Amino acid sequence: MFDQIADSIYFIVSSSFDSNITYIKSGDHEVLIDAGTGLYASALDKDLQTQGTSLESITDIVLTHCHIDHIGGVIPLLERGSPKLYLHKAEAEPINNGDMSHTLGDTFGADLPPFKIDVLLDEGDLIDFGDVKLRVFHTPGHSAGSIVMKVEDSGILFTGDTLFPGGSFGRVDFPTGSPEKLVESLKRISEMDFEIGLPGHMNAMKFNARRSALTSYQTAKNWFKT
Ligand SMILES: [Zn+2]
Fold this sequence. Notes:
Layout: E1 2-6, E2 9-12, E3 21-26, E4 29-33, H1 41-50, E5 60-62, H2 68-71, H3 74-80, E6 84-88, H4 89-96, E7 119-121, E8 126-129, E9 132-138, E10 147-151, E11 156-160, H5 179-190, E12 196-199, H6 209-224
Parallel strand pairs: 4-5, 5-6, 6-7, 11-12
Antiparallel strand pairs: 1-2, 2-3, 3-4, 8-9, 9-10, 10-11
Helix pairs in contact: 5-6
Bound molecules: zinc ion.
């Protein structure tokens, strides 16, 4: 079920193993932020239909990192349409070279076929979808290529699996995870100017998300003793 966050930004909180998914309609662009596992693509299609669109119409999928619960949904979308795929270069390069080992497909017993990332993201990039523009910040820790993205001229931050609500944060015990880097990334996020945080799992942080980020940073710093 879509939760409208701003004019053209709709957030779906997952009730399954899926990541949360955001749908953005901006001019000719119909964008997803993360794509879920792909196991629930028909439910996503039904949700999209309530907005007068469908899986076929998605033009762009921006991935916050390479884990299967965020990128598995790329497969059904590629079968139904031809969306452009975006991922941080640290994780896009291995995938484009056919190395799917960091996607955690094996860990979850899912066989994810190889696919190509079209746009390799880097720190500071601006993804221009017309009215909606996304600024990319490289925030490693949960994984080497994890990013958060700020909607330009708004207080909205997509926090992926780096920052969760309630003083929580992403795991660091998967391949390429790093507690030290996560603490640094949470510190950086806690110093950003934003009001609403849209995480990869759990509920949206709709008010005072920056304060929530500060709690997560302090908790992680104590927890990992960095
Ligand atoms: Zn993850």
